[in-house]
Amino acid sequence: TELGHVNSSSSLPASPAARSTMAAEVAAAAAATLRRWNGVVRPRKVPLPEKPKLTLYEFEASPYCRRVRETINILGLEVLVKPCPRETLRTEGAYSSKSRHKPEVRAAGGKLLFPFLVDHSANVALNESSYIVEHLWKHYGIGVEQPSSDRVLNGGLPALLDIPLLTAPSALRPWPHAGLMMAPSVRPELPLIMHGCEPDPGCRLVRELLCILQIPYHFKPRDLDSPLPHLEDPNTDFKTFGARSAQEYLRDKYQLGPPLPLTAPVPEPNLGDSGRTSPISWFLPR
After folding, report:
1. What predicted TM-score, i.e. pTM, was given to this entire model?
2. Are strands 124-127 and 6-7 parallel, antiparallel or unpaired?
3. Which of 142, 180, 233, 252 could form a disulfide with 238 if both were Cys (CB 3.0 to 4.6 A apart)?
4. Alpha-carbon distance 66 to 227, whole Å?
5. Which H/E stretch holds residue 82?
6. For residue 176, what are the β-bridge partners?
7. Which phi and psi (to 5°) does residue 68 adopt?
8. What φ, ψ does residue 266 adopt, rounded to 5°?
9. What pLDDT shows up at residue 167?
10. 231-252: b (≥16 Cβ within 10 Å) or e
């Protein structure tokens, strides 16, 4: 991953304190990527007849969303990501009028559980990570050899091993800003573009911020040895390599305030589901 500040405009170098904070964030993101050996783009021996048109509704902190992102990376599929961060941890599926993309999920017939994939090319909409992964391999796995690690991690382990390996990375970054809780933001006119790789810690940091700000973006998988992350904003012609410069830009251009706390109440009025209490709510103060 690249940590430097390289963009289309000049800027002052970061202070030692800022560099120290960034290094700590990257270290935490790297530690959280326990599945680092999975999710790297694999060579495709037979080209797809045409690129599929895919839209993924997800949030970065979800381990089940990570499972789908890993498959998207392995298959080298480009996808429009529409982040759906949480507004509360007390109820599953709750959201307010501030949620930009969750109403689209309901309109498409999906459950307010993530990930949710709309495959416009196959005219299919799916919840549940296992169903989505199976669909992607079935329709777009032609010419791609599935890594043995992916085969084991996504369906080849008993639940007692599968669940800890899947959830541990998110448990290592249980913070509101780490792709979990919504933050107020300016809505861009056009989706941004991110070139990245799922296992790269710098890419994770940028995805986390895009997520809490509900900024849609076209994700383009790249090899781990590429200069990553690479963020483009067609709304301003901004382009950058590096996690720190991308984060600085997103905060300056789009973020209006801090994310909601982990203890945030159920939004009123709640436009989503109301009858599904989250297990996490048992540990939250009343």
Report:
1. 0.87
2. unpaired
3. 233
4. 22
5. strand 79-83
6. none
7. -70, -40
8. -65, 130
9. 78
10. bbbeeeebbbbbbbbbbbbbee
